[in-house]
Amino acid sequence: FALMLALPAVATNYNREGYEIFRSRELGKHQTVTTLRKGPVKVWFSHCKTSGGTGSDAIFELQKGTRIQIEVDEGYAIRWVILRDTEGGKRYSDPEGIKRISSVTPGYKYYFERNAISNSHISGGNQNQLNDDDNNIVVYNYDAPEKIVYMWSHNNSKWDQFKVRDIIVGYVRAPKVRFERDRYDMYYTSIPSSFFKPVLNYDTHNVNAEFKVDNNDIATVTSGGFLKFKRPGTVVFTATCSASENCAKAQCSTTVTTKRDGVTFTSVGLPDVLFSNTPHNLRDYLNNSKTKSGENFDYNDESFSVTSSNNAVLRYDMPYLKFGGTAGEATITFTQKETNFYEAASLSHTIIVMRRDQDGTILIKDANEWKLFCKLVNEKGMTNLNAKLEADINLGGDIAMIGRYDHKYAGTFDGQNHTLTLNWNTGESDIAPFRRVDGATIKNLRTAGTIKSSGHFLAGLIDEASGDNNTISNCVSAVNITSSYTSDRCGAGGLISYIYTNTQVTITDCLVKGAINATGAGRTGMGGFVCYQYGTCTLNTCLYAGTNNGSNEYSYTIAPNATINNCYYLNACGSEYKQGTKVTEEQLRSGEVAYKLQNGRNNTVWGQMLGTNDEPLLTDDGAKRVYKVDFTFNSQVRATRYATRNKAIYGSMPTFTPKDLLGSDYNEHHYYSGIAFEDGFNGSTTVTSDKQVRINLAEKDCYEIASKENWKAFCDIVNSGQNKIDAKLMRNVDLGSEINMVGNDSKEYGGTFDGQGYTLKLNWDSGSNGYIAPFSVVEGATIKNLRTEGQITSNEKFLSGLLMSAYGTITLTNCVSNVNITSSILISACDAAGMIYFVKPGANVTIDDCVVKGNITATTDIGKDKMAGFVGSQEGTCTLNNCLYLGSGNGDTFSRTFVGDAYYGATTTLNNCYYLNTCGKAQGTKITAEQLKSGEVTKKLQADRTDKCYWAQQLGEMPDFYNAADKSKANYVYYDAAKNGWACDDFRLTDGQPLPIGLDFTAATVTYERNFNGTQNATLCLPYDLYAQGFKAYTLSGGNKNEVHFKEVDDKLTAYTPYYITANGMPQLGGRNIEVKAYKADKMTIPAAGYKFTGTVAGVSNATAAANNAYILQDDGKFHKVTTTNSAATIPAYRAYIICPPQASGAKQLSVVLDGETTGIGSTTNEATDGKNGPVYDLQGRRVADRLDDARHRLPAGVYIVGGRKVVVK
Question: Organism's domain of life (predicted)?
Fold first, then answer.
């Protein structure tokens, strides 16, 4: 497809070598046309004829979709074609008009050009109807790339057929521009300055070429056609001649390849072994190395190098090989890197170099040097060489052994405490680092790794030993040996496989810790140290810590037929008979075995970094020496520990239970703490020598708790096993929210816990956990004098204010649970109890003198099904004596006030137990709050016990357990066993304040202070008998209208009896050793002649007094009627009041007649100077001011009563 343009984008350049004109008029009308030719141009139509056209001339008429092929002869190319005066399709001015031609050869453009004839300057233009026309179409490409150009007429069914009147073809020369050669190949080194110019033949082209390459990374090109190579490689070099006036554009290419030269290195001329320190010159060797090109090799270029695999052995210092000072094998590598000039080439050549010290001892520091030493001994026969290891060596899988049957090693090999590690796997027999020795000394060597073989006679150090004076000392074999040899005994030895007859071997201070494993018959013969021993073998202070699967037939833990001195073994290897002393892994770790192997020698041979090393070490480092520490109690060693010098003992300090130390003197109820060691010795004490440490044991009769941390520690002590320990609470302790409980299912608490009257306070939220109580599980325990208070909240069941599960014989005495329990359980009853939840089968629980005050609340209906004030689940024997339930619970169904329903066979006994509120079903005896406050319940709870006081209280408060310290409190009543009665040391009445009294007792001191405000008369009703002192007492004798009559009584006043008294001064209403009586109402009212004189110790309200028509004594000496109009008028406690018979109840006041003599208010005064400071009453008995002198200016004018006298205020 070619570009279509309605108008030329640029002016058409009609330059040409020549042109040809093909006119339809020359053919005539109605002719079929296929091929036309003029000069070098040929035109071919696929379907064409001439028609009449416009006017009288013919015109080329093409079928729709007809191909027009225009071709020029070889050596020419087509630049332009003019299709003059075309028809068919839309007008030339329409954008669709150019589509008369559907397409042309790619690379050529076509467009309408009206003046194409004029612009082309062809001969005869604009003559004979060969003229410019709007419908002229030009097909054009200045470069003239083709010698054949194709065109296709349109194929539009709606348009007329394509017609063209004339065809003019412009053509140019097409020269054969070419390079002299199609390909160039050369060495990079042969290019002068890396420049090269291929020869170009222009043929007849008249334009200088432009040059380019396809890969500028390999080469660049100058404008003159010179190639400059950057590196070897292949490029396509292209020359382009641009189109000219009469020549087409021409282009040609050639391939240019540059390659690298090559050098070849050989081993000829290189040494295999060097022994001296004379440098070896490589110059001649390098000068003799030739290249592929035949040029001399340039070894001075930095791309060439000589390297050594081990510069410590042999290094290159151009052009010399120089020694690095370390013996071994070094591989010298000659390397020519790939460059622009040379291909990569290399050669590696190994040279052996041996090291010796000044004494001639071979020095070995790596696997290569070990192998070199093997070669010296085995191949060179240098069997007497001495050698030293300078480093740990890992031979890996390379089997390289010293000595062989014809070259037995006889020198001294010093491992210098380095390790030779191997990983050998073979099918051969007779495998060991030292294959054969004869009179050799091997010392300070460690071997490690594995030997696996299907053969036999395998060993961790020596395969075979012969000759005299073979000495092995301070050596360790940690080689794991596996033999799959099954034809006979495997013959494996941890140190030596075979000792020949007439051979002497001494093994001193050696350790074997590798494993030996054989198969089948191979198991029948192996040895921890030596397997076969037919000579003389002595082992001193050695340790076998390896493992094996040897059987007893011919296997030996240490060695057969040997002398064994102070040797030890961890695991037996076949026979243990006369094979040393067996030890355990712990003895190895602890330092005990290292201590025994050292055996008291001054110089350190065996040591151990305890805590780091699991077994003894062979070492001369004194810092690793192990000392022994003996811990003694009563001069007997009870434990031993070991320590590395200047370190603390290994492991933890010895732990002793008191029972361990005391034996039969141990008391499981005592608290043994502070096990201390002499001079403060502890796990951090530095040990510098062997020593003994004395153990000191502190003992208390109980554990003391004074904080929540102490409580947690106590729980830990019990729950860890010392569960019979007694304990005391030393103060009130707030446990907060952290839940720590005493005892568990495996460590039931069985001691005595004495709360000493103190309180454990808790605020526990157990979330989804149940079984919550301060004491979780107890068996055979006693808990006394303990108070708990606070809150337990849970989403679960099994909750208790004191104890969860009781086993065995349990006693609770003088305990108070004031814990509020809330359960939000959703799926079952809350199973909560104030004191104990579970009394387990077989348990015998006695609860004496205990109180539950806490409330139990289930927040769900199902949770309310089961709870109990004291005990929840009763499956044993449960007895409650003298207990009090003051709490509350919202339980129903199976809930009980004291104890849950007993299971079959269980027994519940309630003795003298009382409750204020029920919790589900009532149990015990109901009491009231008044009974509780009055002391009545306290006396009931004391019951008939006379040995001591159990219960006491302050009157007006709740019953509590007796506390001698509380005796000094006012109104504290208690049972005095010495006097066989109830007592109170300090009984006090506060005027006007009622005090409930529900029992008789003797008050050592009675105090009742009452302010008479200067009046000389009063009413009185006391809870005790009293002799009149400083006053006269009267009782009611009758009345008459507005009078009430009294008669004097004997000196003694009776308790709970009303009296009218007169006094000149302050009456004595208290005293000493007074009998206080329990409240009784039978004497509180004295009747006489229809009048009643009633006492009160509780006080009477205004409404009650008014309703009863009561008259109370006022300061004017008369009884005034109480009315509700004066609501402040009440009858205080310890007073008495008059009730008149109906015929006298209308009187507003009553005069008092004592023994027939009327009393009352004296004469009226204007100032009442003797009563200014008294309270002021109006004539209706109402108190209107506290003092006359303060109020006289604000009181309305009138008559008032002050100090029993009338006072006129004007």
Answer: Bacteria
